[in-house]
Design brief:
The complex is a heterodimer of chains A (325) and B (326). By secondary structure, chain A is α/β, with parallel strands linked by helices. Chain A has 2 domains: 180 residues, 3-Layer(aba) Sandwich (Rossmann fold), CATH 3.40.50; 128 residues, 3-Layer(aba) Sandwich (Rossmann fold). Chain A is built from 12 helices and 14 strands. In chain A, 58% of the residues are buried. With 326 residues, chain B is of the alpha/beta class. Chain B has one domain: Thiamin diphosphate (ThDP)-binding fold, Pyr/PP domains (Rossmann fold, 3-Layer(aba) Sandwich), CATH 3.40.50.970. In chain B, the strands form 2 sheets. Chain B has a 5-stranded parallel β-sheet with strand order 1-2-3-7-6, sandwiched between helices. Chain B is globular, with a radius of gyration of 19 Å. Classes of the chains: A alpha/beta (325), B alpha/beta (326). The interface between A and B is large, with 51 and 54 residues.
């Protein structure tokens, strides 16, 4: 029996192993050190590596990203934490105009081995400014790689790959998954960026789902399986680069596609996936593509409203029925 | 300083001046795409600061950065070619005037975003401090940028971590078209240093020796591990915000008064007082003019970048980076 750990522990293990492996790796963020991280992700690292490598900062997100960028430009390998992805709003210039563009603007002379870790997602009634899924801002910004894992296994392997990557990576964790357990082997492994994972095989409909929605899709698939409907769940894991081949292959097999993400539907990652599939696998499609996403509103506070806004298992089931109708 | 060193300072200021003038001329003649922010009038800041730096020190530059990059030792030809948007440019035609940088000379980017570079300087300094290299970062920005949040966030962070940064506030008295007295109540940007408990120093930004002296002191402090300095250089741009901006917001007589204090005129006078013959200085200037003319020639004759190069340099060529372009 393989041991099971949580996503939180998976992140922490990846960080600890990379901190031990490479002296140039350091962490920088708000209350990640002495306090242990608002989500307790970095707990214990400050005690092991000290304040020089687990750097607590003032509440100054632009200063955090700028410092990480400058250090990366001269060869360090920083891992910055933005406490909630919503706080990208106060440092988006550093992320989108500086981090994403410095290499390009210098004609390729600067290399930026930089990781930005940040949790997103709803589910805790954290309301409009602590619940968002903002991956579309990031995938729309050339120069960034964007990772969005779902399982502890993927989280650990992909975070290690992100830290070793010579390009800026935004690594989006999900706050509702920090306590989610899954099998993770002891010892070293790395999952290459840009490879999707088939979380469940099926022949009737393809469901592309990201982050926490992978679990919702798996639950929907289990219920549909009772009726003899077999969904194939594709977890892209990395949004940039995207494993288009895996998605196209699955659609070629099933002829039907549902895309599920927690971000609002309009202009979202699902639209990109749908466009790719329509352009490159149109002949395989037997039904219009369905998107299951949050409604196009800010995130409300009330648990009832939050649930109403965000995709639920029954929404995915309904979408699969629609593509199969 | 030796007489040779003094003359070398003058030469670099002449290079910046003539470079800027030629670029402006070519821009107005329609040979240069985009737009252009000229540093004519501010040469003593760029040259004075960079003269105090070691070769392995770093510079973080701004949208008005030609002078910073030249003073840090960048090649005239590849700089000129960059401004012309040519393949031989130091950024392969992807940066242009506003983003011109030569990383090989320690210039960690210029910036089209006012105040965008200030937090980055801290990261470079953090690496230097961690590695105990003794390197310093000179971070240039204007009076306008001193009202950005990034300025305050970055100075605070540099202060608490004692980072080896010299924050060079190039106060040319205008944030675009808004005069300093309309955009901030403090008379001296350097006064803001008190908020971060770091030294704030005001210097005549048109006096290249004073700028160099003040920068040296700030660098020494930084190299001793005593942290950053906010160094305000009072200066003036002779052009408008961009080349073509008539500068209608200036006070009557203001430009004329500052032209009397043209940093090149002042320093030439000083050199002559030190016994450098006028003929030698004329000869030096003629050589610089020729050098800049050759750079224009080089840029003009250089090839346009091949279209497909636009798809390069978005990512470092790792496996993931290669696959991220689709």
């Amino acid at each position: 029996m393989m041991r099971e750990i949580t996503c939180r522990e998976a992140v922490r293990e990846a960080l600890r192993e990379e901190l031990r492996r490479d002296e140039d790796v350091f962490l920088i963020g708000e209350d990640i050190g002495f306090y242990g991280g608002t989500n307790k992700v970095t707990e214990g690292l400050w005690q092991e590596f000290g304040p020089e490598r687990i750097m607590d900062t003032p509440i100054s997100e632009a200063a955090i990203i700028g410092a990480a960028l400058g250090a990366a430009a001269v060869g360090m390998r920083p891992v910055a934490e933005i406490m909630f992805i919503d706080f990208l709003g106060v440092c988006m210039d550093q992320v989108a105009n500086q981090v994403a563009k410095l290499r390009y603007m210098t004609g390729g002379k600067v290399t930026l081995p930089l990781t930005i870790r940040t949790p997103g997602g709803a589910g805790r009634s954290a309301a409009a400014q602590h619940s968002q899924s903002l991956e579309a801002w990031l995938i729309h910004t050339p120069g960034l790689l964007v990772v969005m894992p779902s399982t502890p296994y993927d989280t650990k392997g992909l975070l290690k790959a992100a830290i070793r990557e010579d390009n800026p990576v935004v690594f989006i964790e999900n706050k509702m998954l920090y306590n989610t357990k899954g099998p993770v082997p002891e010892g070293e492994y790395v999952i290459p960026l840009g490879k999707a994972d088939i979380k469940r095989e099926g022949k009737d409909a393809t469901v592309v789902a990201t982050s926490r929605m992978v679990y919702f899709a798996l639950e929907a698939a289990a219920k549909l399986a009772a009726e003899g409907i077999e969904c194939e769940i594709v977890d892209p894991r990395t949004l940039v680069p995207l494993d288009k081949e895996a998605i196209l292959e699955s659609v070629a097999k099933t002829g039907r596609l549902v895309v599920v993400h927690e971000a609002p539907e309009r202009g979202g990652f699902g639209a990109e996936v749908a466009a790719i599939v329509v352009n490159e696998a149109f002949d395989y499609l037997d039904a219009p593509i369905q998107r299951v996403c949050s409604k196009n509103t800010p995130m409300p506070f009330s648990p009832r409203l939050e649930r109403f806004i965000t995709p639920q298992v029954e929404d995915i089931i309904a979408a699969v029925r629609t593509v199969l109708a | 300083m030796t007489k040779e060193e003094l003359i070398s300072l003058h030469k670099t200021m002449l290079q910046v001046r003539h470079f800027e003038q030629e670029v402006a001329k070519a821009f107005l003649a329609g040979q240069i795409p985009g737009f252009l922010h000229s540093s004519v009038g501010q040469e003593a800041v760029a040259v004075g600061v960079c003269a105090a730096l070691r070769e392995d020190d770093y510079v973080v530059s701004t949208h008005r950065g030609h002078g910073h990059v030249l003073a840090k030792g960048a090649d005239l030809n590849s700089m000129m070619a960059e401004i012309y948007g040519k393949a031989t440019g130091c950024c392969r035609g992807k940066g242009g005037s506003m983003h011109i940088a030569d990383f090989d000379r320690g210039i960690v980017g210029a910036n089209g975003i006012v105040g965008g570079g200030i937090p980055i300087a801290n990261g470079v300094a953090l690496a230097a401090k961690r590695r105990k290299t003794g390197q310093v970062v000179a971070c240039f920005f204007g009076d306008g940028a001193s009202n950005q949040g990034t300025f305050h966030e970055a100075l605070n962070l540099a202060s608490i971590w004692d980072l080896p940064v010299v924050f060079v506030a190039e106060n040319n008295m205008y944030g675009m078209g808004t005069s300093q007295r309309r955009h901030q109540k403090v008379e001296n940007i350097a006064d803001r240093a008190a908020a971060y408990k770091i030294p704030g120093v005001v210097v005549d930004g048109n006096d290249v020796l004073a700028v160099r002296e003040a920068t040296l002191e700030a660098c020494n402090r930084a190299r001793r591990g005593e942290g950053p300095t906010l160094l305000e250089c009072k200066t003036y741009r002779h052009f408008g915000h961009f080349v073509g901006d008539p500068g209608a917001y200036r006070e009557p007589g203001e430009l004329e008064a500052w032209l009397e204090r043209d940093p090149l005129v002042l320093f030439r006078r000083y050199l002559e007082e030190q016994g450098v013959p006028a003929a030698a200085l004329d000869e030096l200037e003629a050589a610089v003019i020729e050098e800049v003319r050759m750079a224009v020639e080089f840029a003009y004759r250089s090839d346009e970048p091949a279209e497909e190069t636009a798809l390069e340099d978005v990512y470092a060529p790792t496996e993931a980076g290669r696959r991220a372009i689709w």
